[in-house]
Amino acid sequence: MPLADGVHTLRIPLRYGDLDTLGHVNQSVYHQLMELGRVRLIQELLAAAADGEPDDAGPRGWVLARVELDHRHELLLDDGDAIVEHRLARLGGSSVTLDCRIVTPAGVLVAEARTVMVAWDGDARGSRAITELERRGFELLATT
Asked: Name one GO molecular function term (predicted).
């Protein structure tokens, strides 16, 4: 799991279709990049927290409740990849707040964001408590 100093990192190749008519990565793609990072983060943290134990918590999911996104610099196809970094800002009873940065391989800060995800109960169509496994996973992020 690419996790160091409390930061989860995912490197994502940029595609020609990510560009807008100005020649830089379209602003909507930034949300997709962050989503890919969040999904991978949750998968890897849950796998690490489970440590081979069976997970009998049943189906569960997450919904995005809030996004704050500040664009700092353009991202170009010539940058090759976007590096998405997530850090835990807050772990609540049913929600997780993450700070995100998108940087180029050269280290240029492209965007900063804060997202709030809510643990989701698909049957009840509403929020649910974070499971013990999920809490252990996010605590791994907080303690590295």
From this structure: hydrolase activity
* Element of type H or E holding 35: helix 27-50
Q: Is 96 within 8 Å of 116 (Cβ atoms)?
A: yes
pLDDT per residue as tens, the chain (144 positions)? 567 788 999 999 999 999 999 999 999 999 999 999 999 999 999 888 888 776 655 557 999 999 999 999 999 999 999 999 999 999 999 999 999 999 999 999 999 999 999 999 999 999 999 999 999 999 988 865
* pTM, entire model: 0.90
Number of domains in the chain: 1
CATH label of the domain that carries residue 117: 3.10.129.10
